[in-house]
Design brief:
The complex is a heterodimer. By secondary structure, chain A is an alpha/beta fold. Chain A folds into two domains: about 210 residues, FAD/NAD(P)-binding domain; about 140 residues, 3-Layer(bba) Sandwich (FAD/NAD(P)-binding domain). In chain A, about 30% of the residues lie in helices and about 25% in strands. In chain A, helix 2 packs parallel to helix 10, helix 2 packs across helix 11 and helix 7 packs parallel to helix 8. Chain B has a single domain, classed as Orthogonal Bundle (Cytochrome Bc1 Complex, Chain D, domain 2), CATH 1.10.760. Helix content of chain B is about 60%, strand content about 0%. Chain B has six helices and no strands. The radius of gyration of chain B is 19 Å and the shape is globular. Chain B starts with a helix and ends with a helix. Classes of the chains: A alpha/beta, B mainly alpha. The interface between A and B is large, with 51 and 32 residues. Chain A: One of its GO terms (molecular function) is flavin adenine dinucleotide binding.
């Protein structure tokens, strides 16, 4: 059992104290907050929540982050690694910056959470008690919906690369080994899924690679959705102007199964054999969320109170990012998860100080997509809390997409990545 | 009588103050966290990453820039769309908090 006293002991033993780093932010308000917050998942949502809890409390709240991987690897920008424009090292960031904020970072797996006992069980390192828990585990794939991909062997051959890391590099290798004149097919699940423009960016960037290195090859998008889900006009324009005859888009092409041995996507009325088959299976909230007892919509996404990101039923458990049942027009994006992390951190500090969360949270989002190595398009939105609807809604008149693809936005996309990684991790 | 008036005016003050008490004491800080994804934590952008540092900029200049984004007077790729998501009062708070950052 790892409790608050153990936390302090462990923290002291590693030389941790609030004085180790200069804690920014203002000293008023949140520093009344006391307690131990355990954050599960060190991605865009969880890492941000962990840092902001420490920063905004001036170190008065103890924070433990449980993360399976020893380094953060970004999904945004990973399509550039797949296209050979960046390396995995370019999208990997250390957790040392969070340790400097006084976050205790533990690399382990969560095997169970007991909301009534306020306790989290780890695979190797025992049990942790918490005053509030933040669950930001990302997504879990619904392999049942693609039976042919249930085995580890099939999953090693037919990649998703929808969680950045080894799969990103493996998909790159498959594309490099593919013969010129081959077909790369990408199966896109029905919305809602992680990163709405992501599949179309990936198709564009792989076409960019083919155009320069394997010009007889083809990119085939098998989309379960009735149309391009995000930035449609801009993507379709890029495909026709930059990759004419190379990118083919097929709507309403829901995947029923896969024959991994022959790299065949089995659709309702068709079978499509590819040289590189890339399947993004439908997904749901991460396991720690679905096992926590938090109320789920469609058995998939956690319903949260948008004032605090707290589960509507599992008290003391705040759920962030892709695992949430998204508010209307809110994408499952890293940017959005970062914003969830901040609203949750502010609310938790109020709650730990015996105060109500802010009644007027705001969030913004900008998703940049590369259509080739030097040109980028965006979609942006601003979200505010609607007290009557009890959800986040977009602010009328705000948001929109790029007027056209541009090199200027490519520089902003890279600048955005560097800044958001620093915002969450340093 | 004077005492009664004092008591009455105190009651008025309390009434006037109570809606504010229900609001967010950290609103400026929390709103600025919306900007941090691109412009850095508390407006301190990562050096040489091509994003404007907003921390320590004069408040009037920040308000004016946001207003120009909203009116379209200042050309932008995305800020004209983001700026329209925030009210005058919110922009005032954001600019004040950023200007006070050292």
């Amino acid at each position: 059992m790892f409790n608050r006293r153990d936390f302090l002991k462990a923290a002291g033993a590693t030389g941790f104290s609030a004085g180790v780093v200069t804690l920014g932010g203002c000293a008023s308000g949140s520093s009344k907050a006391k307690g131990h917050v355990v954050v599960v998942g060190g991605g865009y949502g969880g890492a941000t929540a962990a840092k902001y809890l420490r920063m905004w409390s001036n170190g008065s709240v103890d924070v433990t982050l449980i993360e399976r991987n020893t380094e953060f690897t970004s999904c945004p920008i990973s399509n550039l690694v797949i296209a050979g424009e960046k390396t995995l090292a370019d999208i990997t960031v250390s957790y040392e910056g969070l340790r400097k904020w006084g976050v205790r970072v533990i690399h382990d797996d969560v095997v169970g959470i007991d909301a009534a006992k306020r306790s989290i069980r780890l695979a190797k390192q025992g049990e942790l008690s918490y005053d509030r828990a933040v669950l930001s585990p990302g997504i879990e794939f619904l392999w049942d919906q693609v039976p042919g991909l249930k085995t580890a062997e099939a999953q090693a051959k037919i990649l998703h690369a929808w969680k950045a890391g080894p799969q990103t590099v493996a998909l790159r290798k498959q594309l490099e080994s593919m013969k010129d004149g081959g077909v790369y097919a990408l199966c896109v699940p029905k919305a809602p899924y992680r990163c709405p423009p992501g599949p179309y960016e990936r198709a564009s960037m792989i076409a960019h690679y083919f155009k320069a290195h394997k010009p007889k090859s083809k990119v085939l998008i098998l989309d379960a959705n009735p149309d391009v889900t995000s930035k449609k006009g801009l993507f379709v324009k890029a495909w026709s102007e930059l990759y004419k005859g190379m990118v083919e888009y097929r709507p309403n092409s829901e995947l029923r199964d896969v024959d991994a041995a022959s790299r065949t996507a089995i659709l309702e009325f068709d079978k499509v054999k590819a040289d590189v088959l890339n399947v993004v299976p439908p997904h749901r909230a991460g396991n720690v969320v679905t096992q926590s007892g938090a109320k789920l919509a469609n058995n998939r996404w956690a319903e949260v109170d948008w004032l605090s990101l707290e589960s509507v039923n599992a008290k003391g458990i705040h759920i962030l990012g892709d695992s949430t049942l998204s508010a209307p027009l809110m994408p499952k994006s890293g940017f959005m998860a970062n914003q969830h992390g901040k609203v949750a951190a502010a609310a938790i500090l109020n709650l730990l100080a015996g105060e109500a969360p802010s009644p007027e949270p705001m969030m913004s989002n900008t998703c940049y997509s590369f259509v080739d190595a030097k040109h980028v398009i965006h979609v942006a939105s601003v979200h505010k809390y609607d007290a009557e609807k009890k959800t986040m809604v977009t602010v009328p008149g705000s948001g929109g997409v790029s007027a056209e693809r541009s090199a200027l936005e490519a520089s902003f996309a890279v600048g955005w990545a560097k800044n958001i990684w620093a915002d969450m991790l340093t | 009588m004077k005492r009664l008036i004092t008591a009455a005016s105190t009651a008025v003050l309390v009434l006037a103050a109570s809606p504010a008490a229900a609001e967010d004491a950290n609103l400026a800080r929390n709103l600025v966290a919306n900007c941090a994804n691109c412009h850095g934590t508390n407006g301190k952008a990562v050096p040489n990453a091509g994003m404007a540092t907003l921390a320590g900029q004069p408040k009037e200049g920040l308000v004016q820039r946001m207003n120009e984004f909203r009116s379209g007077a200042r050309p932008a790729t995305v800020m004209h769309q983001i700026a329209k998501g925030y009210s005058d009062a919110q922009i005032d708070l954001i600019a004040g908090y950023l200007a006070a950052q050292k």
